[in-house]
Every structure is written in structure tokens, then in C-alpha cells.
């Protein structure tokens, strides 16, 4: 049996789609003796957007952008990454690993590549369970290594170094517990998952499929997963503009949002949940109670003297008329939301 630890860095994750710029991994034997340690540099074929709202970088990658941009893209590295993940007698680990599995899924979809199916184990959750830390207080890899007394002089955000630290953390857990990796995995529940045929299934999210009575149209649980996947697929299209919705309406109208977002997409208007990235802000219906913080933020942005552009504020009713809808017709179309989700999931995606 061998162990594989991997980590991924992305140029950006806009639209929920990770544009991978490095795939780093460490392969060991059962005694944690390193057999391979490698960082695969990848051209993301996308812009590097690693900034917060104040345009100050908060992530510094391990290599200059020019090195990433001179490398081959994910399509060229796909065969070797597939071989790495599909090696027999291999256990695969990562830290908050479902995120990295999601980045791989995004690239498989973007480049129309066959999904590489594999099972993964999350060292982040294993560490929290081993020290009795609540899963609501999960810490970063560097913090976990500091708490465990592991030297962290590696290069931050270098994929192979983060993979190495993940390996050292698992090794430390086995030492403290006095148990082998198979023994730890056998007695610790809800730390594994799979990437299978384009879907991520994680044991620790197994209750998300349950929807409480009265919450069938809320964006939570399975609805939230379906909505995120739907938006992620649509984000791979090209758009002239982007629109964002009042959260007061959006989060309580899952089925209607599927209809509205898909109809806007057909007209060349994409979706964003960030007001700062939007060209259009769509207000809640007039009869909906509450004050939307996103709307206040949009108004504030529009009033700034140094604003380079204005965000159009559109009434919900005006948006319906633009799409040729009435409230009654929207409600009727919303009953067919599953068909729309299926069509978007199965459509041919652009590279």
C-alpha cells in the first residue's frame, strides 16, 4: 500500500470553477518514506485574480506568473495526473480535500476530459477528530501543523510543500495515537469522499440530501448543491454582462432562480453572487419584506466619486418584463426546474 498526498493552487475560482495552475503531490510508502515529491506547473489559460475587494493581494503563489503562463495547460498534463490518481493500491489524502477534488472536476469539465474517479480522505477532519476540535472550528493547514509541533518552513502556497505538510500531519497523528493509517481510517467516520462521474460525494455531507418540509424551495441542503453545480456549469459560457440578485429573494426561491438565471444566460447575461462584479443588480419584488445588504452596498458603490462604472439597479418586475414573464408564468416555469438543471448539466461546454 502507498499513500498519495496532493494539493492544488488555482489562478482564480470565478464562477465556482477552479483554473488550476499547480498540482503538487507527495507519494510515500506505509512508513511515510517519500517515494516522489513533485510540483506540476500548469498554464491556467485564465487570468490570475488573487485579490480582495481593496485590490491588495492576499495570496502570493510560489512562482511568478510568467512561469505558469509559459507552462503547458491542463490538457497536456491530464494523462500524467490521471496515472497518478489511478495507481493501484493507493490511498489518497488532502487537506480540505473536497475543494481540490472540485478543482479537478472543474478542469475535467472545462477541457471536456473524462472524469478521473477516485476516493479521498480528508486529513483536516481527521486531525480535528483526533484532537477533539469541533468541526465548526477547523483550522488551516499551517495552524494545524503549528499546534501539532510540526516545522512549517515550507513555501506557502507551493502545492508540493502543502502536500508534504499534509503528509507530516497525518504521520504525527499516527504517532500520537499509536495506530497505523488503516487503523485510524477504520475507526474514524465521515472523513472520506469520492469524485465520481463529475459529482463529489463526501460522507461528511451525507445529510445534505435531506430537505425539511416547508423548505423545498430554499437554497440549502441538496438544493444548494444543485444550484452551485448549475451556476458553475453556466459560468463556463461567455457573457457580455453579469447580474446579481437580492439575497432576500434569491435564497427563498430556488426553482424560480433556476429559471431566471438560465433565461438571462440565454440573453448573454451571466450570474454573479458578488455585487462588486455585477453590471446589473436586480432588486427584490416590491412586496418582499426586509432590507437587502447587497442593495445598500450597490448604492454605496455607485455613489463613490472614484467609481469607474455604475451598476444598473433594476426592479424585479422590470426584469420579468424583459424576459417576457409574469409572476404567474414564472411560477409555472419553475415547476419544470429539474429539466433545466439536467439540460445544463448535459450540455456541451466550451473550452
Give an overview in words.
By secondary structure, the chain is of the alpha/beta class. The protein has two domains: 2-209, Nucleotidyltransferase, domain 5, CATH 3.30.420.10; 222-346, Rossmann fold. 40% of the residues lie in helices and 17% in strands. The protein is built from 14 helices and eleven strands. It has helices at residues 65-69, 74-85, 97-110, 123-131, 141-147, 159-177, 181-187, 222-234, 247-250, 254-266, 293-303, 316-322, 327-334, 337-346; strands at 2-10, 20-28, 34-41, 90-94, 118-122, 192-196, 199-202, 241-245, 269-271, 280-282, 312-314. Strand 6 (192-196) and strand 7 (199-202) form a beta hairpin. Residues 52-57 have low confidence and may be disordered.
CATH architecture of the largest domain: 2-Layer Sandwich
CATH superfamily of the largest domain: Ribonuclease H-like superfamily/Ribonuclease H
As a whole number of angstroms, the C-alpha radius of gyration is 22 Å
CATH topology of the largest domain: Nucleotidyltransferase, domain 5
Strand content: 15-25%
N-to-C series of helices and strands: EEEHHEHEHHHHEEHEHHEEHEHHH
For the record, give the distance between the C-alpha atoms at the N and C termini, rounded to a whole number.
37 Å
Shape, principal axes of CA atoms: globular
Indicate the CATH class of the largest domain. Alpha Beta
Flag low-confidence runs. 52-57
- Chain-averaged pLDDT: 91
Count of helix runs: 14
Secondary-structure content class: alpha/beta
Please state how the strands of the largest beta sheet are arranged side by side.
3-2-1-4-5-6-7
Number of strands: 11
Number of domains: 2
Largest beta sheet, briefly?
7 strands, mixed
Helical residue percent?
25-40%
Amino acid at each position: 500500500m502507498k499513500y498519495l498526498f496532493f494539493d492544488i493552487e488555482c489562478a482564480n475560482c470565478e464562477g465556482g470553477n477552479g483554473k488550476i495552475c499547480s498540482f503538487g503531490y507527495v507519494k510515500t510508502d506505509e512508513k511515510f518514506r517519500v517515494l516522489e515529491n513533485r510540483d506540476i506547473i500548469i498554464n491556467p489559460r485564465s487570468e490570475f485574480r488573487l485579490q480582495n475587494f481593496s485590490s491588495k493581494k492576499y495570496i502570493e503563489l510560489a512562482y511568478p506568473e510568467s512561469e505558469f503562463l509559459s507552462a503547458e495547460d491542463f490538457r497536456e498534463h491530464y494523462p500524467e495526473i490521471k496515472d497518478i490518481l489511478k495507481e493501484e493500491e493507493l490511498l489518497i489524502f488532502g487537506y480540505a480535500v473536497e475543494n481540490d477534488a472540485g478543482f479537478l472536476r472543474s478542469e475535467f469539465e472545462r477541457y471536456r476530459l473524462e472524469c478521473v474517479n477516485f476516493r479521498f480522505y480528508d486529513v483536516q477532519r481527521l486531525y480535528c477528530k483526533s484532537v477533539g476540535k469541533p468541526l465548526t472550528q477547523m483550522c488551516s493547514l499551517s495552524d494545524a501543523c503549528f499546534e501539532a509541533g510540526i516545522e512549517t518552513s515550507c513555501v506557502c502556497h507551493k502545492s508540493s510543500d502543502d502536500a508534504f505538510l499534509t503528509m507530516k500531519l497525518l504521520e504525527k497523528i499516527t504517532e500520537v495515537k499509536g495506530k497505523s493509517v488503516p487503523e485510524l481510517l477504520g475507526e474514524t467516520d465521515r472523513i472520506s469522499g469520492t469524485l465520481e462521474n463529475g459529482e463529489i460525494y463526501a460522507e461528511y455531507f451525507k445529510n445534505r440530501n435531506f430537505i425539511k418540509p416547508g423548505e423545498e424551495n430554499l437554497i440549502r441542503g441538496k438544493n444548494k448543491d444543485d444550484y452551485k453545480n448549475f451556476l458553475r456549469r453556466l459560468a463556463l459560457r461567455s457573457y457580455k454582462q453579469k447580474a446579481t440578485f437580492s439575497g432576500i429573494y434569491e435564497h427563498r426561491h430556488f426553482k424560480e432562480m433556476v429559471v431566471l438565471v438560465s433565461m438571462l444566460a440565454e440573453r448573454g447575461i451571466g450570474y454573479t453572487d458578488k455585487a462588486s462584479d455585477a453590471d446589473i443588480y436586480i432588486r427584490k419584488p416590491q412586496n418582499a419584506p426586509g432590507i437587502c445588504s447587497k442593495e445598500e452596498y450597490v448604492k454605496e458603490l455607485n455613489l463613490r466619486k472614484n467609481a469607474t462604472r455604475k451598476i444598473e439597479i433594476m426592479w424585479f418586475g422590470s426584469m420579468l418584463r424583459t424576459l417576457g414573464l409574469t409572476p404567474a408564468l414564472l411560477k409555472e416555469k419553475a415547476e419544470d426546474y429539474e429539466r433545466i438543471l439536467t439540460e445544463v448539466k448535459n450540455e456541451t461546454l466550451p473550452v
